[in-house]
Amino acid sequence: MGLNRNSARQREDAAMPGTPTPAVNGTSEPVTLSASLGVGIGSAIAAWVAAWVLHLPGIDAPAKVSLPLIILTMISAATFLLRACPAPTRLRVGAIGGALAGIANLLIVASTAVVQPGSTAEMEQYANQFNSQAAIIIPSTVVVCIVAGLVAALLARGGRGQADTRGAWLARLGLVTVFVYLPLILVGGAVTSTESGMAVPDSVTTYGAISVLFPFELMAHPRIFLEHSHRLFGTLAGLVTIVLMIRVLTASSGRLAKVLAVALFVAVCLQGYMGAQRVSERSIPLAIVHGIFGQIVFTLSGVLAATLSTGWRSMTGDDERANTAAKARTIAVVTVVALLLQLALGAAARHLAHMDPPSNGTGHARLTHAGFSFVVMGLLIVLGAMAMRTARSGRGIAVLRRLGAGLHGVVTFQFLLGWAALGLVSTAKEPRPIPNPDQLDTAAPIRVGEAIVTTAHQATGAVLLLLTGITVAWIFRVASARTAR
Q1: In the CATH scheme, what is the code of domain 315-437+445-485?
Q2: Domain limits of the chain?
Q3: For residue 160, what pLDDT band results from cuts at 50, 70 and 90?
Q4: Chain segment 89-129, per-residue pLDDT in tens
Q5: Cα-to-chain-centroid distance, residue 172
Q6: What rounded mean pLDDT belongs to the chain?
């Protein structure tokens, strides 16, 4: 029995999104496009995150430092992803993936290819005008990214390589999409923590410019940088979501995955609309809903990635394991509801504090959020334990063991972060309303330490909701997989 259980666990160890096994039907299909999309989008995300960090206010690395580091980051990400490709296809996938990454990177590089006015007051005159270097900057960006992809292909030695199937790369694309949303959530949290939500007056354009053509030099102001970069990450997330939806709808991925892919696309469109309306209407209630719904979208992307994994699609029936999982379904649903309530309380506490005049409900929301954290932590500990118990039942399932352990680790860290954040925000002696664009130069300085801790708390909460959503999805999946009679 021990040998049988271990072998079954090895077969289902690929259940976690992003660790796909050979296709269920055992066939190998041409996957150059699927692999190239995964490599291109994955390396572009890495480049975007590196660029964002290197250009944060206070860091603002010069081009001679930032460009090599960004390219090195992109090569490293592409090398990691290309290790899953068979050696004969790596150069081709690396080149195409590099070209796709180059196109995605143009969304941020284009800001250097336009006229750079001295201030936002000059944008009415200079918006959307390319400079004399644009004809060099734009094509050279794509060429450099293609070369980076080829270098990554040459460096990508070893690796599994045998998972050269369309289903395997679709699963990876689903996982890559999750990582697109992570920096979007993080930057959005930073926007709230630094009172940057109204740093840009227009909701669709940026000071009259198409967002991707907003001059790089005008991003020097911290609050403009954070708000504008949040919009750029949102643009990237929207485009990647469209690509994933098309790939899922055109693949033999199952009805549930197709429904979730369309739902994710609709949710992203709605989230973008709410973000724009929040700026147009200067609405704090919309900001709260926008913050809550963003984390729900993030979680939905994780559930979709789980359903695309070959472990999900190839799961075999096991009555003992299914019975154990069925016992966890009630606590799973209760935990999700509790987490959503906790998320709403946290969002209210964060945004109400920035109202002008300050809302009387801020303190109530903050203290209720802190008190309810004990309930949420208890539920997550129980859910994690039940997930790990399910992982040991019958033939076992490795993904639930990892998810259960992840829930325990992340909720502990989040609990500590929450109390640290509460201590910091409670020391604020004066209200800090969100400055309008004409108030940026006279606004109170950003409290960097508080912003880092509160943003980390918000982002960790999003990861916790993501892990919970994936865990619940897997529990219901395992509970439904019974031995055929």
Answers
A1: 1.20.120
A2: 315-437+445-485
A3: low
A4: 999 999 999 999 999 999 999 999 999 999 999 999 999 99
A5: 14
A6: 89
